[in-house]
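Q: Could you fold this chain for me?
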Amino acid sequence: MLTELVSQLRKYDMVHPGDSVVCAVSGGADSMALLMAMYVLKEKLGISLSAAHFNHRLRGEESDRDEAFVRDFCDRLDIPLFVGSGAVSAGPKGLEAAAREARYAFFANLDGKVATAHTADDNAETVLMHLVRGTGLKGLGGIMPVNGKYIRPMLNVTRAQAEAFLEEYHVSYVEDSSNAGDDFLRNRLRHHVMPLLKQEN
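A: Sure. Below is the predicted structure, expressed as structure tokens.
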């Protein structure tokens, strides 16, 4: 996975020596893989590394568990951590969109570049979401590797590769129980459509 991540960083000129990079970390597998990988690579890349976690307070004790997990991991590796929180309620675009807006509003106030753990799987799901809702060429392009201060070093890494990396480095992660349900379009595509497409290719 490290090879794919470094290739993405260099291909899109994402970071330079002396940069400050903040990894957005939920505590899930993808974001923990990103944080650990950037921690392993920080000397090679010449960057200063920190992490950011936003507690949406949508899942009660489970949300607090996620925050505590990220805090503990960052403490053990001496990674500076920024934590934000806020009550999120569904807006006109739904709860998932409202949570994303709150999270990115928090990230916008952080100094440096913000690295998010979007994977190749996320990118494929995003393109399908755009197709389902109706889109033009921009939507068919999927997730942008670089968008202002935001960088996505894992867009050519699969979810399976991220999980294998975590196993190799003995890094644990937490599961978001809302990912198991079909309340959100992304989950429905992930659970029911993507497996069918993968059977074809």
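A (continued): The first strand starts at residue 20 and ends at 24.
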